[in-house]
C-alpha cells in the first residue's frame, strides 16, 4: 500500500511533470472508482493543473479550484506515460481505472494512469471543489511529518489500543500504514502489541524520533525517483517489514510475522519483545 513517503514522491513527481499542463480527455475504464458524480469528471477537461498536494495518504491535484483527489488504497498506483495510447480503453479490461491526458507547455501530450492490481477494487477518486469535503480527508489527524512531539505524546496517551493499531489509525496521525509502522516500531524497539497509553515517556520520545527519522529518510530516498521505481525503493529501505524469516540487520535474530484479517506485520523478537515470540493467529486457528 502506498504510504506517506510514496504519495509525497508521487505528488512531487506530478509537480515536476504535470504542473502548468492542461487536462485533456479523461478516460474512465472503471466507473466504480468514482465516488462523486457532481461535478462530473469531465469538468476537469480544459483546466490547468495549478498544484499538487498530499493529505495523509491522499493525493490531490488542483485543476484551477476543481480538485481530483485520489486514494490509492492497497493495490492502486499512478503510472506516467510520455506517449500514451489515444484509443479510449475498454471498460473493465485490465488494471486501468482512469487515464488523464495532458497538454504541456512544451506541446507534449503525456498522460497518467490510475491503476489497481488484484480483484479487490478499493481505489477511490473524487472530483470536488475542496479536498476537505472528502470524508477520509476530513477525518485525518495531524500529518506524521508535521505533528509536534508534545502533540504526538498527547495523542499516544489518549488511546488504549495497541501501538501498532494507533500508528495506523489515520484519525490519530495521518500518513502511516502497515509497512512504515513496522519499521518505526522496530527502530524504536517497541513491541507492536504494547498498549499505547502505557508507554513510558522515554518510549514515546523514542517512537516520535523513529517516526520522524524513518519517514524523512524514506521521503528523501523516494522523491526524485521515477514513479515506476518507487515500489522497489520502498522495499529496499525496509529492515523488518516483508522480511519474515530473514535476519534482523540490527541484532541477527530471525524476523517474525503475525497475521490477522487480511494483513500481516513483521517484528524482531530480540529488538522489540525481549525475545518473546508473539502468537501467529494463523497457527492458532489451525491448532484449534
TrEMBL record:
Domain Formamidopyrimidine-DNA glycosylase catalytic: 2-118
PROSITE patterns (UniProt xref): FPG_CAT (PS51068), ZF_FPG_1 (PS01242), ZF_FPG_2 (PS51066)
Keyword Signal attached: no
InterPro entries: DNA_glyclase_Znf_dom_DNA_BS, FPG_cat, FPG_N, H2TH_FPG, Ribosomal_uS13-like_H2TH, Znf_DNA_glyclase/AP_lyase, Znf_FPG/IleRS
Domain FPG-type: 239-273
Keywords per UniProt: DNA damage, DNA repair, DNA-binding, Glycosidase, Hydrolase, Lyase, Metal-binding, Multifunctional enzyme, Zinc, Zinc-finger
Catalytic activity: Hydrolysis of DNA containing ring-opened 7-methylguanine residues, releasing 2,6-diamino-4-hydroxy-5-(N-methyl)formamidopyrimidine; 2'-deoxyribonucleotide-(2'-deoxyribose 5'-phosphate)-2'-deoxyribonucleotide-DNA = a 3'-end 2'-deoxyribonucleotide-(2,3-dehydro-2,3-deoxyribose 5'-phosphate)-DNA + a 5'-end 5'-phospho-2'-deoxyribonucleoside-DNA + H(+)
Lineage top rank: taxon: Bacteria
SMART domains per UniProt: Fapy_DNA_glyco, H2TH
Gene Ontology BP annotations: base-excision repair
Gene Ontology molecular functions: 8-oxo-7,8-dihydroguanine DNA N-glycosylase activity; class I DNA-(apurinic or apyrimidinic site) endonuclease activity; damaged DNA binding; zinc ion binding
Cofactor(s) it depends on: Zn(2+)
Annotated family: Belongs to the FPG family.
UniProt protein name: DNA-formamidopyrimidine glycosylase
Species the sequence originates in: Rhodococcus rhodnii LMG 5362
Amino acid at each position: 500500500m502506498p504510504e506517506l513517503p510514496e504519495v509525497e514522491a508521487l505528488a512531487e513527481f506530478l509537480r515536476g511533470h504535470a504542473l502548468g499542463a492542461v487536462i485533456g480527455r479523461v478516460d474512465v475504464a472503471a466507473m466504480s472508482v468514482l465516488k462523486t458524480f457532481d461535478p462530473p469528471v469531465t469538468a476537469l477537461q480544459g483546466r490547468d493543473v495549478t498544484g499538487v498536494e498530499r493529505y495523509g495518504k491522499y493525493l490531490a491535484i488542483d485543476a484551477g479550484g476543481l480538485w481530483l483527489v485520489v486514494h490509492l488504497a492497497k493495490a492502486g498506483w499512478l503510472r506516467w506515460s510520455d506517449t500514451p495510447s489515444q484509443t479510449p480503453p475498454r471498460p473493465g479490461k485490465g488494471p486501468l481505472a482512469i487515464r488523464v491526458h495532458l497538454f504541456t507547455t512544451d506541446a507534449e501530450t503525456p498522460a497518467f494512469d490510475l491503476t489497481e492490481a488484484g480483484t479487490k477494487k478499493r481505489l477511490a477518486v473524487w472530483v470536488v471543489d475542496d479536498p476537505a469535503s472528502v470524508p477520509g480527508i476530513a477525518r485525518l489527524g495531524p500529518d506524521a511529518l508535521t505533528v509536534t512531539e508534545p502533540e504526538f505524546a498527547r495523542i499516544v496517551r489518549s488511546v488504549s489500543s495497541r501501538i501498532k493499531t494507533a500508528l495506523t489509525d489515520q484519525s490519530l496521525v495521518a500518513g502511516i500504514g502497515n509497512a512504515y509502522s513496522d519499521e518505526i516500531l522496530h527502530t524504536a524497539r517497541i513491541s507492536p502489541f504494547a498498549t499505547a497509553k502505557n508507554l513510558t515517556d522515554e518510549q514515546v520520545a523514542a517512537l516520535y524520533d523513529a517516526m520522524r527519522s524513518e519517514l524523512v529518510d524514506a521521503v528523501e530516498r523516494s522523491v526524485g525517483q521515477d514513479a515506476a521505481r518507487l515500489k522497489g525503493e520502498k522495499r529496499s529501505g525496509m529492515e523488518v517489514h516483508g522480511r519474515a524469516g530473514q535476519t534482523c540487520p540490527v541484532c541477527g535474530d530471525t524476523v517474525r510475522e503475525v497475521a490477522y484479517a487480511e494483513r500481516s506485520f513483521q517484528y524482531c523478537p530480540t529488538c522489540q519483545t525481549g525475545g518473546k515470540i508473539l502468537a501467529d493467529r494463523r497457527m492458532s486457528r489451525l491448532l484449534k
